[in-house]
Amino acid sequence: MSEPKLAAAESDSSPHASRAAQSAAQPATQQGAQPGTPPVAGPRGLALGAAVALIALIVLSVAWEWWLAPLRPGGSALVLKAVPLLLALRGVLRRRVYTLQWASMLVLLYFAEGIVRGMTDRGALSAALGWLEAALALVFFVCALGYVAPFKRAAKRAKKATAEPA
Predict the structure, then answer these.
(1) Tens digits of per-residue pLDDT, 57-80?
(2) Contact predicate 98/34, CB 8 Å
(3) Average pLDDT in the 89-111 region?
(4) Which of 45, 131, 135, 166 has the fewest CB atoms lying closer than 10 Å?
């Protein structure tokens, strides 16, 4: 009795198949791709590099403003700057192209903050943390763009192929 349900859930063409079963049946190269984009294999190493850099940036933001070198003793409200990064974490871990695109733009704010604080903070530790923040943001940016680029190229080729008259 459970076999027909299992067969229906595994069939991609079945209208009763669950959305989770359909997404699990998709190849890993298409997860996170925009609809209509041809299957493309994004470099997994770049996705992993982006995820590691994002996690490190979140940890650094929290540790910096609570323990390592807060602006005020006991911590500061700047610890909340990690919240936007946390919003992107789930999509980055799942290698979603759209999330990596907007997160790569978001991380430029952290890059700018790292440069400013690296150059202007008076404490040696705080200045070093600023440069570390800039480096992590740059690593994330490069990895995210490197991962997204093949998807964007494939989408552009597909759009051009559909635009040409047959």
Answers:
(1) 999 999 999 999 888 887 888 899
(2) yes
(3) 97
(4) 166
Helix, strand or coil for residue 84? helix
Start-to-end C-alpha separation, the chain: 49
**Statement: the pTM of the whole predicted model exceeds 0.85:** no
> Can you say how many angstroms the Cα of residue 55 is from the centroid of all Cα atoms in its chain?
10
Q: Are 140 and 132 in contact (CB under 8 A)?
A: no
Residue (of 139, 138, 135, 146) closest to 44 by Cα position: 146
Other Cβ atoms within 10 Å of 76 Cβ, number: 14
Contact call for residues 91 and 98 (beta carbons, < 8 A): yes
Across 109-120, b (16+ Cβ under 10 Å) vs e yields ebbebbbebbee
Would you say how long the chain is, in residues? 166
- For 16-63, write each residue's pLDDT tens digit: 433 333 343 344 444 555 555 445 667 899 999 999 999 999 999 999
What span, in angstroms and rounded, lies between the C-alpha atoms of 48 and 92?
9
**Under 8 Å between Cβ of 137 and 61:** no
